[in-house]
Amino acid sequence: MSASPKPVATPSFLGRAGPLVLARLFTAGLTLSIPLVLARVLHLDEYGTYYQLFLIATTLSYVLPFGVAQSLYYFLPRAEAKRPFLGHALLFVSGAGLVAAALVWAFLGYVAAYFNNPALMEYRASLALYTAFFLGSYPLEISLTSQGRTKASAVVYLVSDAVRAGVMVLPPLMGFSLHGMMMAVAAFAALRYAATWVVSLRGATGPLVDRKLFREQLLYSAPFGAAMLLAIPQQNAHLYAVAGVVAPAVYALYRVGCFQLPVVDLLYTPTSEVLMVRLGELEREGRMEEGVDAFREAAGKLAYVFLPFAAFLFAAAPEFVGAMFGQKFLPAVPIFRVSVLGVVLSILPMDGTLRARGQTRAIFASYLVKAVVTVPLLWLGVKHFGMMGGIGSWALAELVGKGMLLSRVPAALSTPERKLGLVDVIPWRELGQASLAAVIAGGSIFLLRSGAHDAWVNLPAGFLWRVLPLAVAGVLFVVGYVVGLYAQGVRPLSALQSLRPRRAV
């Protein structure tokens, strides 16, 4: 009798995200160091200017690709010849980069006048170059992940994020201030752009350009691209609105309040990307009825991380802002607590699901409604409540948009044999368990602060002493959250087991 075959490690679909998560986890600390270091080495005016420069660059970088780069998640898993789709994306974003540079050069003066910050014009050349090259390199990681090359994508994330953190932090530390940093990031973006062409096309077959396929790719991308034309300006509208009514130094406080740790990008982005690829594979194999299970699995695992993370940041906001940025930024705590809502709203990977199912028009509709809602909310909010009105307007608009996306997910995951409702797609059990444990753990931090307030105030000066309250609060929260999960019969490590390879016979 022959021996039975040994079990072979086969990753769940979320297991494929493991290398991306690990790579981003490794570089998250470096990325996080950028605003924290700059907050200490730049003057408040320069710090506000830094945020304004990158607000302009990121707005253009997300709007002008018009969804063509993201369309690779849809087309490459289904394509035999992948090179045309890659070529179209690379050429399109290269042209978009030139447009971005021209816009910066032509209109930065008007933006500087609106921001009441003439110092912006000193960085016009470096900002134009950085924006053009960075936008042109947009498809780098996307091209690898959409071909299932998650390990290679993880290496690229690792190297790119590490180098980027270095070129942004080292020049100011060496005394070159914001001018040196902007020249360094422009050079970095140029190298990244060259690497994008080499890495993305490696091993791909087919012609570089195919007009018929490009029309198909552009038609798919257009609704999503149009959505980005609405979504990114809408999401950043509160940043522009506040920048137009406060001085750069006060704007620095607002941006600290809007600061988000990279945990959302660290987990949500690779999970959503791999989910998109998985849904494409299920559709190709005729097993789309399993799509809702993949969605619930992804959302459930994210819930166990995002809900406690948001609860901790909300409860420990004074300790976090004081430790990370310094006591002079404590007025940003109320704004920071409102911005934490963004973490909670990232639990359900809805936009990636709709893109994978070709329902980009639903994304456009949600962004259109958000844009319409944002205008009156922002006008009233900033006028009557200042900076708190700005962040509150953003939060209300996000709730409206996420609600619209969620209403379309059941239909997107339904099949003729299995019609789904809202109740079917939400991981209720995981949400309930994570919420209860997070509330209990967060409450313990408020009790700690009320009992140890005098002790914290009288701590000696120095970074380690300043971090001590945050460290104590963190340990207390983690213990409370883990105990809360165990009390409900949940084993935290097993709850995240899908990010590891599974054994299959």
TrEMBL record:
<dbReference type="InterPro" id="IPR050833">
    <property type="entry name" value="Poly_Biosynth_Transport"/>
</dbReference>
<feature type="transmembrane region" description="Helical">
    <location>
        <begin position="88"/>
        <end position="111"/>
    </location>
</feature>
<feature type="transmembrane region" description="Helical">
    <location>
        <begin position="329"/>
        <end position="350"/>
    </location>
</feature>
<dbReference type="Pfam" id="PF13440">
    <property type="entry name" value="Polysacc_synt_3"/>
</dbReference>
<feature type="transmembrane region" description="Helical">
    <location>
        <begin position="302"/>
        <end position="323"/>
    </location>
</feature>
<protein>
    <submittedName>
        <fullName>Oligosaccharide flippase family protein</fullName>
    </submittedName>
</protein>
<keyword id="KW-1003">Cell membrane</keyword>
<feature type="transmembrane region" description="Helical">
    <location>
        <begin position="362"/>
        <end position="382"/>
    </location>
</feature>
<feature type="transmembrane region" description="Helical">
    <location>
        <begin position="237"/>
        <end position="254"/>
    </location>
</feature>
<keyword id="KW-0472">Membrane</keyword>
<keyword id="KW-0812">Transmembrane</keyword>
<feature type="transmembrane region" description="Helical">
    <location>
        <begin position="54"/>
        <end position="76"/>
    </location>
</feature>
<keyword id="KW-1133">Transmembrane helix</keyword>
<feature type="transmembrane region" description="Helical">
    <location>
        <begin position="21"/>
        <end position="42"/>
    </location>
</feature>
<feature type="transmembrane region" description="Helical">
    <location>
        <begin position="464"/>
        <end position="487"/>
    </location>
</feature>
<feature type="transmembrane region" description="Helical">
    <location>
        <begin position="123"/>
        <end position="142"/>
    </location>
</feature>
